[in-house]
Amino acid sequence: MQEKTGYFAHLEGTSREVGRQQGQFAAEHPAWMPMLVLPEPLPEARLRETMRLLDDYCPGINDELLGAAEQLGVEPGRMVYYAGTDIQAGCSHCAVLPGKTADGRTYVLRNYDLSPELADMRLCDTAIHGRYRHIGFSTVLFGRTEGMNEHGLCVTFSACGQPVGNMEGMRAAKVSGLQFWAVVRTVLERCRTAAEAVAAIREMPIASNMNLIIADASGHAALLETFDGEIAVKEADGTAESYVTATNHPLFPEVARLEPRRLHHSVVRHELLNEALGGSAPVGKDELRGLVQQEYPHGLTVHNYRQWFGTLYSMLFDLNERTLDVCFGSPLQNPWYTVRIGEPFPQEQVKVRMQHRDPEPGFWQLV
């Protein structure tokens, strides 16, 4: 059994002020510094190009990074975010639209699986002047792995095939562009509806191979898949399609041709989601939370922490109420909390229990 600290954080002000708040948090937690600050600055030409890319597609984030660098007393070129954004994780997620839910609301369920050594474990309520307020988990402090904004737009991410990045074991980027964490945050801060989000993402250069589920409070959703620069979209308006699901493999034929391999555990988790949502009966909050209250292969939660594939948090977004049920770590080992955008968090820190269990044989098998 290992124990990790989870954090709740309110971030509010101008981009530069929020950056200083982020830098202050990092300074108060020195163990985070190797994840945030490089030993040497990036080459000047690469830094300029990355900053230009962020100014074009993610306005405001450069000011936030500069504020953090000032607070930490380091050159901006040493911020890890710049090194990783211009080019990891296993997840299960779904959006369920009003025609399918028992109470006529729109819900998004999300399970995030990775190593606790690679995660912030920090749920942020972020309100930057001139941007939409949103709530979601941070990664490398400044990025977001998912979230819901004040208008009821929700975006969740999972890697599509082998994650793209510069770390050993990751797939080298085939195109130049943004990492998922920049895309997710930008959409949350700039878009109000699923249609606006899809249109915005189509305009972005994206290096990540990812499955994004996008849903809004009006009951519209989309599954958007990117792979090696290609993009495919499936939209759902609650008529012919009342839900969308994704895990960690390509779901569109045009993308599957580029990456035909699928990990066994990704297929099993995707089938679990579709079986739970594919019947004729309406689905309630208890049934959705029940999907992560059971351990793989009967449910979505995984305790394979030693192989970088354990559940770090589970989330159930209510887009109409703008509320979020969240559990840090495995829901089989830790409690749930309910939070609302813009309201005080229940506490600043939580202790998160993470007990490893070996997965069943065949977990990593390619099919």
TrEMBL record:
Domain of life where this protein originates: Bacteria
Residues covered by the Peptidase C45 hydrolase domain: 103-332
Renumbered to this chain, the signal peptide range is none
Looking up Pfam families in the UniProt record yields: AAT
Question: Cross-referenced InterPro entries, in alphabetical order?
Answer: C45_proenzyme-like (IPR047794), Ntn_hydrolases_N (IPR029055), Peptidase_C45 (IPR047801), Peptidase_C45_hydrolase (IPR005079)
Please report the name of this protein according to its UniProt entry. Answer: Peptidase C45 hydrolase domain-containing protein
Q: Which organism is it from?
A: Paenibacillus dendritiformis C454
